[in-house]
Structures are given as structure tokens and as C-alpha cells.
Design goal:
Helix 8 links the parallel strand 5 and strand 6. It is built from 13 helices and 15 strands.
């Protein structure tokens, strides 16, 4: 489970708002807690000599600007690293620096006979879900990426936003926005007709997708029988909630939420209900994608909303595991792909000041120091017997965050967990 754009101070700010105390979220109670580096391979033209294609703890805590854009990772390269174990350039999806296709965890899971899927609160062909399914030299080739996800991948579940006929608040439009996020109009029409989808299981027979769009359709599949493959496109253009109309800088939940789209929790439970039909197990990536969007816009209230929505989805997954599986056979990892906004407390720069706790229900004191990504270390929490292996990978040390691993090592551990022998 990946909260896009999330960082240590995002978590702290949200915990202060929700609980009036630090570290009160469910993932803070997971038994395995580490940090994770997120840097990507720098192109020579990036002129990022101070970063030198890595993370240096000494420089990170002696130079306030060391981790800042333009030398920071993006979601495409970060997702590729986490899903394949291979570092690549910003913007690259599932390919190495030479543009060569590299296998991802979803494909490995398919080879093991597992059911697979991706869920997101932003467009389902966006960088993070794409990085777990597709292969392309540009994250911006949305139509081609969506076509690969629909027609060539073995995924059994794809869910997110990006509907061509609805605006950011879930209102039906007279004319469509764009069909690129759903693979172009031909692909969309095939999805609507129920004819889209290639041979997902390798038996030589096409496996068409069942398209669901309304919140009621998502909710209906949270329990009971399900189709074999489900592609959910919520009736909203870009994000489930972050982009809705109204004052984007208002405090959390002041602007009424769009009620016609599913929550991230509902989508996640729908995905699990589809995937749990497979006795060989499942591989699922769930992204809280709009934490990043709100952080790019320095929207404190909406960032908190999105992080809380992600938290509710994590809680639902923990409950699902405890009711339907066990922690001996299931690994749950909660992390992020990179930090966005360089969030710290008031008065930061050139020093780092803490987030200020103003009590539950009140915005904490915070200061955005960027509108872009940073290479700050990422939080990683894990639960399940296989998570004990993180201790072997977390062999680097940061003076503030403690032991850390690299995002490529997350993929290595997941690969091992699926094939420990």
C-alpha cells in the first residue's frame, strides 16, 4: 500500500489532526518499522552532481536543499524500483535506463498463479499503478499504458479514476474530457461493450473485463460472487476527492465531499473480494495517489483528507487479513514512493523545525518548503512473518530516521516472499 507523496511529517501532521498525539495511526503499530531511500538514476543533463545518484545522510542533514527538486525521484521511477527492483530514469515505467522491459512483481505473481491487481485514487493509468503493470519509456504515454494494462497484462483488477465523461466533482459532462487515461475512445468503447481484454491466463482464450463505474457497482462487489476480471473506473475525472470544486485550501472536510464516487476503502475491499477467489493467493498494490496532488498544491486540508482516506484503507486491509487470511501467509507493506512538498514546521529553512501540535481537529502548524518532490527518506511499516526479512535489508543508517533500506530492496523482499525457496 503506497501513499504517494507521503513523508514522515505528513504522517505526524495527520496524527496531530486526528488524535492530538503523534504516531497514532494503525501502521505505527506494525512490528517492523524502517526508513527507505527513494533516489532514481540521474541523467547527465540533470546536472545533479551534489546528489550523485544516491542519498547521503550527512549531506541530507547538513544542507537544507540537498534533497530538493530537480534532483528528486518521481512516481514513475519510484514505482518501477519498488515493483521491479531496478533503478531507472524519471518518467520511465517498468523499463531500465536503456528502455529495456524489466519484469515486475505483478508479472512474477501471475507466473506463480496468483490473482493480481492495482487500485488507486487517481487515474488508473497514472505513474504508480502503471509502474506495477506496464512498460513504457514515458509515463505520459497514458493511452498506450492504459491499452497495455487492458489488452496485454495479466492483471485481474484495475481500479481508479480517469473517467472521460465526468468532471472533477463527479458531474456528468455534455462532451468528454479526454479518453487517454482509459486507453483512447476505441479501448473505452470496448470496455463499455464488455469486449476489451486479452488472454490474461495464457489458455489461448480472451478474458474480457467487466467494467464497473457507479459507486453502487463498487459497493455491490465488496462481498459475494464476482466476475473474474474487474476494471473499475469511478465517475470522476482525475482524483476521487482531492480535485473536487470548492476552496482547495479549506480545512479538512469543510468542502462537502463527492458522494457519487467510491472511497479508496470501498475500492480496496472490492478488489480483495475479486482477487480472493484464487486459491494460490493474491498480489495487490493500493495507492493513495492524491496525497501527492494535494502536496504539490500545498493544500494542507486536502492532504490531511487524502492521508486519512488512505489510513482507513489500511485499517480495512488489516481487518480483511485477520478475517480471511493470517499473518503467516500474508505480507502487508505500507510506504510511499517519495515525499512531496518538503513539509516541516513553521520557521524551517535553513534549519528543520518540527510540526506543531495544535490539538485534535485543528490544523497543525506546518510549512511547505517546496511544491515538488524530494529525496527525503520514506517511512516503511510492515506486518506479517515475511516482514522480518526487512531487518536484513535495512543495513544503512541515517542519524535522524535510523536504519533504512533502498526502494529496490523492497521489490527484492517481495520477490523472496512469493518464492522463499
Amino acid at each position: 500500500m503506497i501513499s504517494d507523496g507521503w513523508g514522515y511529517n505528513h504522517l505526524r501532521a495527520v496524527s496531530y489532526y486526528e488524535y492530538g498525539k503523534d504516531a497514532r495511526q494503525i501502521y505505527n503499530r506494525f512490528p517492523f518499522q524502517f526508513a527507505m531511500s527513494t533516489w532514481e538514476v540521474e541523467r547527465p543533463a540533470d546536472n545533479c552532481t551534489p546528489l550523485a545518484g544516491g542519498y547521503d545522510p550527512a549531506l541530507a542533514w547538513s544542507n537544507f536543499n540537498y534533497v530538493k527538486y530537480p534532483c528528486a525521484t518521481d512516481s514513475a521511477s519510484a514505482a518501477t524500483a519498488m515493483s521491479t527492483g531496478v533503478k531507472t530514469y524519471n518518467g520511465y515505467i517498468g523499463v531500465d535506463v536503456g528502455g529495456n522491459r524489466v519484469p515486475n512483481g505483478l508479472e512474477l505473481a501471475e507466473q506463480k498463479g496468483k490473482a493480481t491487481g492495482v487500485v488507486t485514487s487517481v487515474e488508473w493509468s497514472h505513474a504508480t499503478p502503471a509502474g506495477f503493470v506496464a512498460h513504457n519509456i514515458s509515463r505520459n504515454n497514458y493511452a498506450a499504458i492504459a491499452q497495455e494494462m487492458v489488452n496485454l497484462s495479466g492483471a485481474d483488477v484495475v481500479m481508479g479514476a480517469g473517467h472521460p465523461w465526468y468532471d472533477a466533482s463527479g458531474n456528468l459532462k455534455a462532451t468528454p474530457n479526454t479518453f487517454k487515461y482509459v486507453g483512447g475512445q476505441v479501448t473505452w468503447d470496448a470496455l463499455v461493450a464488455g469486449t476489451a481484454g486479452g488472454d490474461a491466463d495464457g489458455d489461448g482464450v480472451a478474458d474480457p473485463w467487466t467494467l464497473i463505474q457507479t459507486r453502487a457497482e463498487f459497493q455491490a462487489l465488496m462481498s459475494g460472487p464476482t466476475p473474474e476480471r474487474v476494471l473499475g473506473t469511478a465517475q470522476v475525472s482525475e482524483t476521487l476527492q482531492q480535485g473536487r470544486s470548492g476552496n482547495e485550501f479549506a480545512n479538512p472536510y469543510v468542502v462537502p465531499r463527492t458522494t457519487t464516487v467510491p472511497t479508496l476503502t470501498e475500492m480496496t475491499l472490492t478488489a480483495l473480494n475479486v482477487l480472493d477467489n484464487d486459491p494460490d493467493g493474491l498480489y495487490l498494490m493500493v495507492e493513495g495517489g492524491a496525497v501527492d496532488w494535494a502536496s504539490h498544491g500545498n493544500q494542507s486540508g486536502r492532504m490531511i483528507e487524502e492521508a486519512i482516506e488512505f489510513e482507513r484503507a489500511v485499517e480495512a486491509v488489516v481487518d480483511w487479513v485477520q478475517a480471511n487470511s493470517n499473518w503467516g501467509e500474508t505480507l502487508l507493506v505500507v510506504t510511499g514512493d517519495h515525499e512531496t512538498g518538503y513539509l516541516w514546521g513553521p520557521g524551517s529553512n535553513p534549519t528543520w523545525q518540527p510540526i506543531v501540535n495544535n490539538g485534535a481537529g485543528n490544523l497543525p502548524g506546518m510549512q511547505w518548503n517546496s511544491s515538488e518532490h524530494t529525496n527525503s527518506l520514506m517511512v516503511l511499516s510492515a506486518k506479517g512473518d515475511a516482514a522480518r526479512m526487512f531487518a536484513r535489508y535495512a543495513d544503512q543508517y541515517d542519524p535522524v530516521r535510523g536504519r533504512y533500506l533502498d526502494n529496490t530492496e523492497l521489490a527484492e523482499l517481495v520477490f523472496w516472499a512469493m518464492d522463499p525457496e
